[in-house]
Amino acid sequence: MAPSFSTDDMAGKTKGTSVIFNAEQHLAYKPPPKVLYMEDLGHNPTELSSLASTEPFPLLSHDAVLQHRREIFNKDVLDNCMHHTRPGSVQIRGMVPRYAPFIHEFWNSPEVLKIISDNAGVDLVPAMDYETSHTNVQLGPGGLDAVRKTPVEPPAATKEAIAEFEREKPRIRAVTDQSKPIIEWHRDSHPFVCVVMLSDAQHMVGGETELKKADGPTVKVKAPQMGSAVILQGRYITHTAAPAANMPERITIVTSFRPKDPTLLDETTNANIRNKSHLTELYYQWTTYRLDVLAQRAHIAAKELREKYEQNVNAYDPDGKKGLCRVETVDVKAIEAWVDDQMKYMRETLYEMRPLD
């Protein structure tokens, strides 16, 4: 059974049975001490940003960590949103907003979006509700049954785990062992991700994120501590996660982001997520988001034409009257290129809903 809980055991106002997000109570943000740029990995900056990855930085307060865990490991979520597609882990996703109102409010709050956008170097919004707080749970000896017994309060390291941590600390760890991967080397489906640790990682061995440089070698970004986050331009960097060797659990959440500006590059895909999603919901969210972007682009293009037309009328018509303007407003070649781009965008939208292999 999932851990039962009452909102009475957590400070803060509640709405019904849900905790209401409060920035002062639920954020513990401090800027990252260091960032990696795309150039540091041998890559050119993308059209969106020069950021490759931040180092871990505090983001969630302890209260926010507990409330994420409460909502994620709720029985309804585990019954409806848990997927087992890899031998060493399970994924819990799609719980927002139906089963996880606090999580939805947290990741859509202006305070959190500003933190994410400021660090990414571009204004971002959550990619879709389905990609809010995707949860990766490393399976231990108890397997799937143990996931349903995950406590709200993260378990601390045992004396044996602390001793192992002290022994392993001096070692320089090589490339992640992929014989028993938590997740294979991959690129994300979405431009940016924010990865947050929901487990006590104070004495965790492993758990780092490993990034491939353009010329082959790898760089490890140390694992975040509980409540801390890493922001990664994961669509454009091949990366993996090292397993944790000595802790009773390793639980991370990943929220994916795309550009807020509809005119910016949007190469989002469904490549890594279709086999672990309820496609009826995923494809609804996917199609409406893409159509919304298309509509915004069309609105911007129409607005620019109206402004150019107004300028032409004022500049070339003696009476400044609209109608029968004899100066070219529409650059047909430019409109043709714009239409081609939008048709490509919608063809890609359709392709990302192709039948599963």
Structure description:
The protein is an alpha+beta fold. It has two domains: 7-262, Jelly Rolls, CATH 2.60.120; 288-351, no CATH class. The protein is built from nine helices and 16 strands. The chain has helices at residues 23-26, 62-72, 75-81, 101-108, 110-120, 143-147, 159-168, 279-316, 332-351, and strands at 14-15, 18-19, 35-37, 51-54, 57-58, 82-86, 89-92, 124-126, 134-138, 183-186, 192-197, 209-212, 218-221, 228-232, 239-241, 251-259. The strands form four sheets. Strands 5, 6, 7, 8, 9, 11, 14 and 16 form an eight-stranded antiparallel sheet that branches. A four-stranded antiparallel sheet has the order 10-15-12-13, with no helix packed on it. It has a two-stranded antiparallel ribbon with strand order 1-2. β6 and β7 form a beta hairpin. 36% of the residues are buried. The model is unreliable at 1-12 (pLDDT under 50).
CATH topology-level fold name of the largest domain: Jelly Rolls
Largest sheet: 8 strands, antiparallel
**Uncertain segments:** 1-12
**Rg from Cα:** 23 Å
- Strand coverage percent: 15-25%
Oligomeric state of the chains? Answer: single chain
Count of helical stretches: 9
Query: Helix coverage percent of residues?
Result: 25-40%
Count structural domains. 2
CATH architect. name of the largest domain: Sandwich
Shape: elongated
Structural class: alpha+beta
Mean pLDDT: 89
In whole angstroms, the N-to-C terminal distance is 34 Å
Please supply descriptive tags for the structure shown above.
8-stranded antiparallel beta sheet, elongated, 32% helix, 4-stranded antiparallel beta sheet, Jelly Rolls, 357 residues
